[in-house]
Amino acid sequence: MNYADLFRVTLPETALELAALLVLIVDLGFLRRAALKTRAAVAALLGVAGCGAALWAMQFQGNAWLSVDGDFSSVLLVTGAYVAVAQTGILVLTALTLLLLIDSDFTKHVGEFVAVVLMAASGGLLIAGTQDLLVIFVGLELLSLGLYIMTAFAKSSGKSAEAAMKYYLFGGMSAAFLLFGFSYFYGLTGSTNLSAIQLAIADSGPSPLFYVAWVLVVVGLGFKIAAVPFHLWAPDTYEGAPAPAAAFIASVSKVASFTLLLTILQIWMMYQGEFGYQKSLADKLRFHSDQTWLPMATILLLVAAASMIVGNLAALAQVSVRRLLAYSAIAHAGYILLGVAVYKMQTGHETHIFETLLPVIESQKAVLYYILTYGLTTIGAFGVVSVVERATGSDRLDSFLGLHKRNPVLAAVLLVLFLSLAGIPPLVGFWAKFNLFAAVLGVSAGPVPFTLVALAVALSAVSLYYYLHVLKRAYVMPAIDETPIKAHPVTLAVLVAIAAAVVVLGCFPALLQNWIESFYPAI
Fold this sequence. Notes:
By secondary structure, the protein is mostly helical. The chain has one domain (about 5-515). About 75% of the residues lie in helices and about 0% in strands. The chain has helices at about 5-10, 10-30, 35-55, 80-100, 110-130, 135-150, 160-190, 195-205, 210-225, 235-240, 245-270, 280-315, 320-340, 355-390, 405, 410-420, 430-445, 445-475, 490-505, 510-515; strands spanning about 65, 75-80. The protein has a two-stranded antiparallel ribbon. Helix 7 crosses helix 8 and helix 12 packs antiparallel against helix 13 (about 320-340). The longest helix has about 40 residues, at about 355-390. The protein is globular and about 70 Å long. The two termini are about 30 Å apart.
Protein backbone atom coordinates (compact mmCIF):
# COMPACT_ATOMS: atom_id res chain seq x y z
CA MET A 1 0.00 0.00 0.00
CA ASN A 2 1.34 3.42 -1.01
CA TYR A 3 0.84 6.01 1.73
CA ALA A 4 0.64 8.78 -0.86
CA ASP A 5 -2.37 6.99 -2.32
CA LEU A 6 -3.82 6.62 1.17
CA PHE A 7 -3.49 10.36 1.73
CA ARG A 8 -5.07 11.13 -1.65
CA VAL A 9 -8.05 8.83 -1.07
CA THR A 10 -8.67 10.27 2.41
CA LEU A 11 -8.29 13.95 1.46
CA PRO A 12 -11.91 14.85 2.36
CA GLU A 13 -11.61 13.25 5.80
CA THR A 14 -8.30 15.08 6.33
CA ALA A 15 -9.93 18.39 5.39
CA LEU A 16 -12.70 17.84 7.95
CA GLU A 17 -10.25 16.95 10.70
CA LEU A 18 -8.14 20.05 9.99
CA ALA A 19 -11.31 22.17 9.99
CA ALA A 20 -12.30 20.69 13.38
CA LEU A 21 -8.87 21.61 14.77
CA LEU A 22 -9.16 25.13 13.33
CA VAL A 23 -12.59 25.62 14.90
CA LEU A 24 -11.25 24.69 18.33
CA ILE A 25 -8.24 26.98 17.98
CA VAL A 26 -10.33 29.97 16.88
CA ASP A 27 -13.13 29.46 19.41
CA LEU A 28 -11.00 28.66 22.45
CA GLY A 29 -8.01 30.78 21.57
CA PHE A 30 -9.47 33.97 20.11
CA LEU A 31 -13.21 34.16 20.86
CA ARG A 32 -13.46 33.05 24.49
CA ARG A 33 -14.77 36.45 25.59
CA ALA A 34 -16.99 37.08 22.56
CA ALA A 35 -20.78 36.87 22.65
CA LEU A 36 -22.28 33.40 22.28
CA LYS A 37 -24.06 34.32 19.03
CA THR A 38 -20.77 35.54 17.55
CA ARG A 39 -18.94 32.38 18.59
CA ALA A 40 -21.71 30.18 17.21
CA ALA A 41 -21.73 32.02 13.90
CA VAL A 42 -17.95 31.88 13.49
CA ALA A 43 -17.72 28.22 14.48
CA ALA A 44 -20.58 27.26 12.16
CA LEU A 45 -19.14 29.17 9.22
CA LEU A 46 -15.70 27.63 9.76
CA GLY A 47 -17.35 24.22 9.83
CA VAL A 48 -19.19 24.98 6.59
CA ALA A 49 -15.90 26.13 5.07
CA GLY A 50 -14.36 22.81 6.16
CA CYS A 51 -17.15 20.93 4.38
CA GLY A 52 -16.53 23.07 1.30
CA ALA A 53 -12.81 22.27 1.45
CA ALA A 54 -13.62 18.57 1.70
CA LEU A 55 -15.89 18.84 -1.35
CA TRP A 56 -13.10 20.60 -3.25
CA ALA A 57 -10.61 17.91 -2.18
CA MET A 58 -12.84 15.18 -3.63
CA GLN A 59 -11.92 16.23 -7.16
CA PHE A 60 -8.35 15.08 -6.54
CA GLN A 61 -9.47 11.57 -5.59
CA GLY A 62 -10.68 10.55 -9.03
CA ASN A 63 -12.16 7.08 -9.56
CA ALA A 64 -9.68 5.01 -7.60
CA TRP A 65 -9.36 2.21 -5.10
CA LEU A 66 -6.79 1.75 -2.36
CA SER A 67 -5.60 -1.82 -1.98
CA VAL A 68 -3.14 -3.51 0.35
CA ASP A 69 -1.81 -6.06 -2.17
CA GLY A 70 -2.90 -4.47 -5.44
CA ASP A 71 -5.96 -6.61 -6.22
CA PHE A 72 -9.69 -6.52 -5.59
CA SER A 73 -9.48 -9.01 -2.74
CA SER A 74 -7.63 -6.52 -0.51
CA VAL A 75 -9.37 -3.21 -1.22
CA LEU A 76 -9.63 -0.87 1.79
CA LEU A 77 -11.18 2.30 0.34
CA VAL A 78 -12.79 3.23 -2.97
CA THR A 79 -13.86 6.47 -4.60
CA GLY A 80 -16.18 7.44 -7.43
CA ALA A 81 -19.65 6.20 -8.45
CA TYR A 82 -22.10 5.74 -5.56
CA VAL A 83 -19.35 6.46 -3.02
CA ALA A 84 -18.77 9.95 -4.44
CA VAL A 85 -22.52 10.64 -4.48
CA ALA A 86 -22.92 9.59 -0.86
CA GLN A 87 -19.85 11.48 0.34
CA THR A 88 -21.01 14.64 -1.43
CA GLY A 89 -24.41 14.26 0.20
CA ILE A 90 -22.83 13.77 3.63
CA LEU A 91 -20.79 16.96 3.29
CA VAL A 92 -23.70 19.07 2.02
CA LEU A 93 -26.05 17.80 4.74
CA THR A 94 -23.37 18.42 7.38
CA ALA A 95 -22.97 22.01 6.19
CA LEU A 96 -26.74 22.60 6.36
CA THR A 97 -26.84 21.15 9.86
CA LEU A 98 -24.08 23.51 10.99
CA LEU A 99 -25.94 26.51 9.61
CA LEU A 100 -28.87 25.65 11.92
CA LEU A 101 -26.47 26.05 14.85
CA ILE A 102 -26.14 29.82 14.32
CA ASP A 103 -29.45 30.55 16.07
CA SER A 104 -29.13 27.81 18.74
CA ASP A 105 -28.52 28.44 22.42
CA PHE A 106 -28.48 24.92 23.90
CA THR A 107 -24.77 25.08 24.74
CA LYS A 108 -21.96 27.54 25.44
CA HIS A 109 -19.39 25.17 23.98
CA VAL A 110 -20.19 25.80 20.33
CA GLY A 111 -16.63 25.25 19.13
CA GLU A 112 -16.50 21.79 20.64
CA PHE A 113 -19.92 20.95 19.19
CA VAL A 114 -18.88 21.93 15.66
CA ALA A 115 -15.64 19.97 16.03
CA VAL A 116 -17.56 16.85 17.08
CA VAL A 117 -19.94 17.26 14.12
CA LEU A 118 -17.02 17.47 11.69
CA MET A 119 -15.27 14.45 13.17
CA ALA A 120 -18.51 12.46 13.08
CA ALA A 121 -18.95 13.46 9.44
CA SER A 122 -15.44 12.18 8.68
CA GLY A 123 -16.53 8.84 10.14
CA GLY A 124 -19.50 8.90 7.77
CA LEU A 125 -17.16 9.49 4.83
CA LEU A 126 -15.06 6.48 5.86
CA ILE A 127 -18.13 4.27 6.11
CA ALA A 128 -19.30 5.31 2.64
CA GLY A 129 -15.99 4.49 0.98
CA THR A 130 -14.68 1.40 2.72
CA GLN A 131 -14.77 -2.26 1.72
CA ASP A 132 -12.99 -3.76 4.72
CA LEU A 133 -14.62 -4.89 7.96
CA LEU A 134 -12.02 -3.27 10.22
CA VAL A 135 -12.28 0.11 8.50
CA ILE A 136 -16.08 -0.20 8.55
CA PHE A 137 -16.02 -0.69 12.30
CA VAL A 138 -13.59 2.20 12.84
CA GLY A 139 -15.78 4.50 10.74
CA LEU A 140 -18.99 3.40 12.48
CA GLU A 141 -17.49 3.98 15.92
CA LEU A 142 -16.10 7.39 14.92
CA LEU A 143 -19.55 8.37 13.69
CA SER A 144 -21.39 6.83 16.64
CA LEU A 145 -19.22 8.36 19.36
CA GLY A 146 -19.80 11.77 17.83
CA LEU A 147 -23.56 11.16 17.77
CA TYR A 148 -23.63 10.14 21.44
CA ILE A 149 -21.73 13.30 22.42
CA MET A 150 -23.94 15.56 20.30
CA THR A 151 -27.09 14.07 21.80
CA ALA A 152 -25.89 14.92 25.32
CA PHE A 153 -24.66 18.43 24.50
CA ALA A 154 -27.67 20.23 25.99
CA LYS A 155 -26.42 19.89 29.59
CA SER A 156 -29.34 21.81 31.07
CA SER A 157 -31.88 19.42 29.56
CA GLY A 158 -32.84 16.25 31.38
CA LYS A 159 -34.30 14.83 28.17
CA SER A 160 -30.97 15.31 26.42
CA ALA A 161 -29.09 13.39 29.11
CA GLU A 162 -31.68 10.60 29.13
CA ALA A 163 -31.66 10.34 25.35
CA ALA A 164 -27.87 10.22 25.23
CA MET A 165 -27.71 7.48 27.86
CA LYS A 166 -30.27 5.33 26.03
CA TYR A 167 -28.57 5.98 22.70
CA TYR A 168 -25.18 5.06 24.13
CA LEU A 169 -26.39 1.85 25.76
CA PHE A 170 -28.27 0.67 22.69
CA GLY A 171 -25.35 1.74 20.51
CA GLY A 172 -22.84 -0.20 22.56
CA MET A 173 -25.04 -3.29 22.38
CA SER A 174 -25.42 -2.96 18.60
CA ALA A 175 -21.65 -2.49 18.19
CA ALA A 176 -21.10 -5.74 20.08
CA PHE A 177 -23.48 -7.60 17.75
CA LEU A 178 -21.83 -6.07 14.70
CA LEU A 179 -18.31 -6.92 15.87
CA PHE A 180 -19.40 -10.44 16.74
CA GLY A 181 -20.81 -10.89 13.22
CA PHE A 182 -17.61 -9.50 11.70
CA SER A 183 -15.55 -11.95 13.76
CA TYR A 184 -17.60 -14.84 12.34
CA PHE A 185 -16.97 -13.61 8.80
CA TYR A 186 -13.27 -13.45 9.54
CA GLY A 187 -13.27 -16.87 11.15
CA LEU A 188 -15.06 -18.42 8.18
CA THR A 189 -12.90 -16.84 5.48
CA GLY A 190 -9.65 -15.65 7.08
CA SER A 191 -10.12 -12.16 5.66
CA THR A 192 -11.73 -8.86 6.61
CA ASN A 193 -12.20 -7.71 3.01
CA LEU A 194 -15.72 -7.92 1.61
CA SER A 195 -14.59 -9.17 -1.82
CA ALA A 196 -12.31 -11.80 -0.29
CA ILE A 197 -15.16 -12.95 1.95
CA GLN A 198 -17.39 -13.33 -1.08
CA LEU A 199 -14.76 -15.34 -2.94
CA ALA A 200 -14.17 -17.64 0.03
CA ILE A 201 -17.89 -18.24 0.59
CA ALA A 202 -18.42 -18.89 -3.13
CA ASP A 203 -15.57 -21.38 -3.17
CA SER A 204 -16.79 -23.39 -0.17
CA GLY A 205 -20.50 -22.55 -0.12
CA PRO A 206 -22.42 -20.67 2.58
CA SER A 207 -22.55 -22.43 5.92
CA PRO A 208 -25.16 -21.97 8.69
CA LEU A 209 -22.59 -19.90 10.57
CA PHE A 210 -22.47 -17.49 7.62
CA TYR A 211 -26.17 -16.76 8.05
CA VAL A 212 -25.72 -16.36 11.80
CA ALA A 213 -23.03 -13.79 11.07
CA TRP A 214 -25.32 -12.01 8.62
CA VAL A 215 -28.12 -11.84 11.21
CA LEU A 216 -25.70 -10.30 13.71
CA VAL A 217 -24.60 -7.72 11.14
CA VAL A 218 -28.24 -6.88 10.34
CA VAL A 219 -28.82 -6.30 14.06
CA GLY A 220 -25.86 -3.92 14.23
CA LEU A 221 -26.69 -2.00 11.07
CA GLY A 222 -30.43 -2.09 11.83
CA PHE A 223 -29.69 -0.02 14.91
CA LYS A 224 -27.80 2.56 12.84
CA ILE A 225 -30.71 3.05 10.45
CA ALA A 226 -33.39 2.79 13.19
CA ALA A 227 -35.15 -0.18 11.61
CA VAL A 228 -37.65 -2.29 13.55
CA PRO A 229 -37.06 -4.03 15.95
CA PHE A 230 -33.85 -2.09 16.59
CA HIS A 231 -35.55 1.30 16.70
CA LEU A 232 -36.29 1.81 20.39
CA TRP A 233 -33.61 4.46 20.81
CA ALA A 234 -34.85 6.69 18.00
CA PRO A 235 -37.97 8.41 19.48
CA ASP A 236 -36.21 9.41 22.71
CA THR A 237 -33.08 10.52 20.87
CA TYR A 238 -34.95 12.60 18.30
CA GLU A 239 -36.99 14.19 21.11
CA GLY A 240 -34.17 14.86 23.58
CA ALA A 241 -31.22 15.73 21.37
CA PRO A 242 -30.52 19.37 20.38
CA ALA A 243 -32.16 20.17 17.04
CA PRO A 244 -28.91 20.30 15.02
CA ALA A 245 -27.83 16.97 16.52
CA ALA A 246 -31.21 15.36 15.77
CA ALA A 247 -31.05 16.66 12.20
CA PHE A 248 -27.54 15.22 11.80
CA ILE A 249 -28.62 11.83 13.17
CA ALA A 250 -31.66 11.73 10.89
CA SER A 251 -29.72 12.64 7.74
CA VAL A 252 -25.96 12.07 7.70
CA SER A 253 -26.05 8.89 9.79
CA LYS A 254 -28.72 7.42 7.50
CA VAL A 255 -26.79 8.28 4.32
CA ALA A 256 -23.59 6.66 5.63
CA SER A 257 -25.30 3.50 6.92
CA PHE A 258 -27.37 2.87 3.80
CA THR A 259 -24.32 3.45 1.61
CA LEU A 260 -22.58 0.69 3.55
CA LEU A 261 -25.51 -1.63 2.79
CA LEU A 262 -25.20 -0.68 -0.89
CA THR A 263 -21.53 -1.62 -0.76
CA ILE A 264 -22.37 -5.05 0.62
CA LEU A 265 -25.09 -5.46 -2.02
CA GLN A 266 -22.78 -4.62 -4.91
CA ILE A 267 -19.89 -6.81 -3.74
CA TRP A 268 -21.67 -9.87 -2.38
CA MET A 269 -24.56 -10.09 -4.81
CA MET A 270 -22.71 -10.27 -8.10
CA TYR A 271 -20.21 -12.57 -9.70
CA GLN A 272 -16.91 -11.05 -10.78
CA GLY A 273 -15.89 -13.28 -13.66
CA GLU A 274 -14.95 -10.27 -15.77
CA PHE A 275 -12.33 -9.15 -13.26
CA GLY A 276 -9.89 -11.95 -14.10
CA TYR A 277 -11.15 -14.83 -11.97
CA GLN A 278 -11.18 -18.32 -13.42
CA LYS A 279 -14.38 -19.36 -15.18
CA SER A 280 -15.05 -22.13 -12.66
CA LEU A 281 -14.83 -19.63 -9.82
CA ALA A 282 -16.98 -17.14 -11.74
CA ASP A 283 -19.66 -19.82 -12.13
CA LYS A 284 -19.45 -20.54 -8.41
CA LEU A 285 -19.76 -16.85 -7.64
CA ARG A 286 -22.86 -16.58 -9.80
CA PHE A 287 -24.47 -19.66 -8.27
CA HIS A 288 -23.68 -18.86 -4.67
CA SER A 289 -24.68 -15.21 -5.09
CA ASP A 290 -28.14 -16.43 -6.04
CA GLN A 291 -28.16 -19.11 -3.35
CA THR A 292 -26.80 -16.84 -0.62
CA TRP A 293 -28.91 -13.78 -1.30
CA LEU A 294 -32.36 -15.35 -0.87
CA PRO A 295 -32.16 -15.92 2.91
CA MET A 296 -30.22 -12.69 3.38
CA ALA A 297 -32.83 -10.75 1.43
CA THR A 298 -35.64 -12.45 3.38
CA ILE A 299 -34.23 -11.09 6.62
CA LEU A 300 -33.99 -7.58 5.19
CA LEU A 301 -37.50 -7.75 3.74
CA LEU A 302 -38.96 -8.76 7.10
CA VAL A 303 -37.17 -5.84 8.74
CA ALA A 304 -38.37 -3.50 5.97
CA ALA A 305 -42.01 -4.56 6.27
CA ALA A 306 -41.94 -4.30 10.07
CA SER A 307 -40.33 -0.85 9.89
CA MET A 308 -42.93 0.47 7.46
CA ILE A 309 -45.84 -0.84 9.53
CA VAL A 310 -44.60 0.06 13.01
CA GLY A 311 -43.18 3.44 11.98
CA ASN A 312 -46.31 4.68 10.28
CA LEU A 313 -48.83 3.31 12.77
CA ALA A 314 -46.90 4.48 15.84
CA ALA A 315 -46.56 7.97 14.36
CA LEU A 316 -50.35 8.30 14.40
CA ALA A 317 -50.41 8.34 18.20
CA GLN A 318 -47.68 10.96 18.74
CA VAL A 319 -48.30 14.39 20.24
CA SER A 320 -44.64 15.44 19.97
CA VAL A 321 -43.56 16.50 16.48
CA ARG A 322 -40.01 15.33 17.17
CA ARG A 323 -41.24 11.85 18.07
CA LEU A 324 -43.51 11.93 15.04
CA LEU A 325 -40.45 12.61 12.87
CA ALA A 326 -38.64 9.75 14.62
CA TYR A 327 -41.33 7.22 13.76
CA SER A 328 -41.51 8.70 10.29
CA ALA A 329 -37.75 8.06 9.97
CA ILE A 330 -38.33 4.44 10.97
CA ALA A 331 -40.96 4.10 8.24
CA HIS A 332 -38.67 5.70 5.65
CA ALA A 333 -35.92 3.28 6.64
CA GLY A 334 -38.33 0.50 5.73
CA TYR A 335 -39.01 2.01 2.32
CA ILE A 336 -35.29 2.35 1.59
CA LEU A 337 -34.58 -1.21 2.70
CA LEU A 338 -36.91 -2.41 -0.06
CA GLY A 339 -34.49 -0.96 -2.60
CA VAL A 340 -31.60 -2.74 -0.91
CA ALA A 341 -33.24 -6.10 -0.30
CA VAL A 342 -35.47 -6.81 -3.31
CA TYR A 343 -32.89 -7.86 -5.84
CA LYS A 344 -32.88 -11.02 -7.94
CA MET A 345 -29.57 -12.12 -9.38
CA GLN A 346 -29.73 -12.48 -13.13
CA THR A 347 -28.96 -15.97 -14.29
CA GLY A 348 -27.67 -17.33 -17.56
CA HIS A 349 -24.43 -16.58 -19.34
CA GLU A 350 -24.09 -12.84 -19.55
CA THR A 351 -21.48 -11.64 -22.00
CA HIS A 352 -20.41 -8.62 -19.98
CA ILE A 353 -20.12 -7.80 -16.31
CA PHE A 354 -22.41 -4.77 -16.70
CA GLU A 355 -25.28 -7.07 -17.66
CA THR A 356 -25.08 -8.44 -14.13
CA LEU A 357 -24.33 -5.12 -12.50
CA LEU A 358 -27.09 -3.16 -14.22
CA PRO A 359 -29.92 -4.11 -11.81
CA VAL A 360 -27.67 -3.36 -8.85
CA ILE A 361 -26.68 0.01 -10.29
CA GLU A 362 -30.29 1.03 -10.95
CA SER A 363 -31.22 0.05 -7.42
CA GLN A 364 -28.24 2.03 -6.12
CA LYS A 365 -29.33 5.16 -7.96
CA ALA A 366 -32.88 4.92 -6.60
CA VAL A 367 -31.65 4.41 -3.02
CA LEU A 368 -29.16 7.27 -3.32
CA TYR A 369 -31.85 9.57 -4.69
CA TYR A 370 -34.10 8.67 -1.78
CA ILE A 371 -31.59 9.04 1.06
CA LEU A 372 -30.26 12.36 -0.25
CA THR A 373 -33.67 13.94 -0.70
CA TYR A 374 -34.95 12.51 2.58
CA GLY A 375 -31.90 13.85 4.43
CA LEU A 376 -32.37 17.30 2.92
CA THR A 377 -36.07 17.42 3.79
CA THR A 378 -35.54 16.13 7.33
CA ILE A 379 -32.93 18.77 8.13
CA GLY A 380 -35.42 21.44 7.06
CA ALA A 381 -38.18 19.85 9.15
CA PHE A 382 -36.02 19.84 12.27
CA GLY A 383 -35.03 23.44 11.53
CA VAL A 384 -38.68 24.51 11.58
CA VAL A 385 -39.39 22.50 14.72
CA SER A 386 -36.40 24.06 16.51
CA VAL A 387 -37.60 27.61 15.73
CA VAL A 388 -41.12 26.85 17.00
CA GLU A 389 -39.74 25.05 20.03
CA ARG A 390 -37.57 28.01 21.07
CA ALA A 391 -40.51 30.38 20.69
CA THR A 392 -43.12 28.26 22.51
CA GLY A 393 -41.00 26.09 24.79
CA SER A 394 -42.47 22.87 23.41
CA ASP A 395 -42.53 20.71 20.31
CA ARG A 396 -46.04 19.39 20.91
CA LEU A 397 -48.61 19.53 18.14
CA ASP A 398 -50.47 22.42 19.75
CA SER A 399 -47.31 24.53 19.64
CA PHE A 400 -47.92 24.84 15.88
CA LEU A 401 -51.42 26.31 16.24
CA GLY A 402 -51.86 29.32 13.97
CA LEU A 403 -48.30 29.15 12.64
CA HIS A 404 -49.39 30.64 9.31
CA LYS A 405 -50.32 33.84 11.16
CA ARG A 406 -47.37 33.87 13.52
CA ASN A 407 -44.80 33.29 10.78
CA PRO A 408 -46.19 32.72 7.27
CA VAL A 409 -42.79 31.91 5.75
CA LEU A 410 -42.07 29.26 8.36
CA ALA A 411 -45.54 27.76 7.86
CA ALA A 412 -45.00 27.62 4.08
CA VAL A 413 -41.68 25.85 4.56
CA LEU A 414 -43.33 23.34 6.91
CA LEU A 415 -46.09 22.73 4.36
CA VAL A 416 -43.63 21.98 1.55
CA LEU A 417 -41.39 19.74 3.64
CA PHE A 418 -44.13 17.66 5.25
CA LEU A 419 -45.99 17.13 1.98
CA SER A 420 -42.71 16.05 0.41
CA LEU A 421 -42.09 13.55 3.23
CA ALA A 422 -45.58 12.20 2.57
CA GLY A 423 -44.74 11.78 -1.13
CA ILE A 424 -47.15 14.31 -2.62
CA PRO A 425 -46.39 15.39 -6.23
CA PRO A 426 -44.79 17.43 -7.63
CA LEU A 427 -42.42 17.61 -4.66
CA VAL A 428 -39.16 15.67 -4.62
CA GLY A 429 -40.40 13.17 -2.03
CA PHE A 430 -42.88 11.85 -4.59
CA TRP A 431 -40.13 11.17 -7.13
CA ALA A 432 -37.93 9.57 -4.48
CA LYS A 433 -40.64 7.03 -3.69
CA PHE A 434 -41.65 6.60 -7.33
CA ASN A 435 -38.08 5.88 -8.44
CA LEU A 436 -37.48 3.50 -5.55
CA PHE A 437 -40.68 1.52 -6.02
CA ALA A 438 -40.14 1.40 -9.79
CA ALA A 439 -36.61 0.08 -9.24
CA VAL A 440 -37.91 -2.60 -6.88
CA LEU A 441 -40.49 -3.78 -9.42
CA GLY A 442 -38.03 -3.42 -12.29
CA VAL A 443 -35.24 -5.60 -10.93
CA SER A 444 -37.31 -8.26 -9.20
CA ALA A 445 -40.55 -9.65 -10.57
CA GLY A 446 -42.98 -11.73 -8.59
CA PRO A 447 -45.74 -11.48 -5.98
CA VAL A 448 -43.47 -10.62 -3.04
CA PRO A 449 -42.02 -7.36 -4.46
CA PHE A 450 -45.44 -6.31 -5.76
CA THR A 451 -47.05 -6.97 -2.37
CA LEU A 452 -44.36 -5.03 -0.52
CA VAL A 453 -44.60 -2.06 -2.88
CA ALA A 454 -48.40 -2.08 -2.53
CA LEU A 455 -47.97 -2.13 1.25
CA ALA A 456 -45.51 0.77 1.04
CA VAL A 457 -47.90 2.83 -1.09
CA ALA A 458 -50.78 2.17 1.32
CA LEU A 459 -48.68 3.13 4.32
CA SER A 460 -47.56 6.28 2.54
CA ALA A 461 -51.22 7.28 2.53
CA VAL A 462 -51.25 6.65 6.29
CA SER A 463 -48.21 8.90 6.66
CA LEU A 464 -50.07 11.72 4.92
CA TYR A 465 -52.67 11.57 7.70
CA TYR A 466 -50.22 12.25 10.53
CA TYR A 467 -48.33 14.89 8.57
CA LEU A 468 -51.67 16.63 7.99
CA HIS A 469 -52.22 16.59 11.76
CA VAL A 470 -49.37 19.09 12.06
CA LEU A 471 -50.38 21.12 9.00
CA LYS A 472 -53.98 21.29 10.21
CA ARG A 473 -52.80 23.06 13.36
CA ALA A 474 -50.53 25.33 11.38
CA TYR A 475 -53.16 26.43 8.85
CA VAL A 476 -56.71 25.53 9.98
CA MET A 477 -57.06 25.51 13.74
CA PRO A 478 -57.10 28.90 15.51
CA ALA A 479 -54.07 30.06 17.44
CA ILE A 480 -54.19 30.34 21.22
CA ASP A 481 -51.32 32.81 21.15
CA GLU A 482 -50.84 34.97 18.05
CA THR A 483 -47.51 36.44 19.12
CA PRO A 484 -45.24 36.46 16.05
CA ILE A 485 -42.55 33.79 15.94
CA LYS A 486 -39.25 35.25 14.84
CA ALA A 487 -36.44 33.27 13.25
CA HIS A 488 -32.82 34.23 12.76
CA PRO A 489 -32.30 35.56 9.20
CA VAL A 490 -29.67 32.90 8.42
CA THR A 491 -31.88 30.11 9.76
CA LEU A 492 -34.87 31.37 7.80
CA ALA A 493 -32.77 31.72 4.63
CA VAL A 494 -31.50 28.15 4.99
CA LEU A 495 -35.01 26.78 5.54
CA VAL A 496 -36.39 28.70 2.56
CA ALA A 497 -33.50 27.44 0.42
CA ILE A 498 -34.21 23.84 1.47
CA ALA A 499 -37.92 24.22 0.69
CA ALA A 500 -37.09 25.80 -2.66
CA ALA A 501 -34.74 22.93 -3.47
CA VAL A 502 -37.49 20.43 -2.60
CA VAL A 503 -39.87 22.18 -4.99
CA VAL A 504 -37.35 22.66 -7.81
CA LEU A 505 -36.04 19.09 -7.62
CA GLY A 506 -39.65 17.89 -7.60
CA CYS A 507 -40.59 19.91 -10.67
CA PHE A 508 -37.37 18.94 -12.45
CA PRO A 509 -36.47 15.49 -11.08
CA ALA A 510 -33.96 14.88 -13.85
CA LEU A 511 -31.62 17.46 -12.28
CA LEU A 512 -30.70 15.21 -9.38
CA GLN A 513 -31.03 12.02 -11.39
CA ASN A 514 -28.60 13.25 -14.04
CA TRP A 515 -26.18 14.47 -11.36
CA ILE A 516 -26.16 11.03 -9.72
CA GLU A 517 -25.73 9.30 -13.09
CA SER A 518 -22.78 11.57 -13.93
CA PHE A 519 -20.72 9.74 -11.29
CA TYR A 520 -21.25 6.38 -12.98
CA PRO A 521 -19.27 5.19 -16.01
CA ALA A 522 -21.17 4.95 -19.26
CA ILE A 523 -22.62 1.49 -19.80
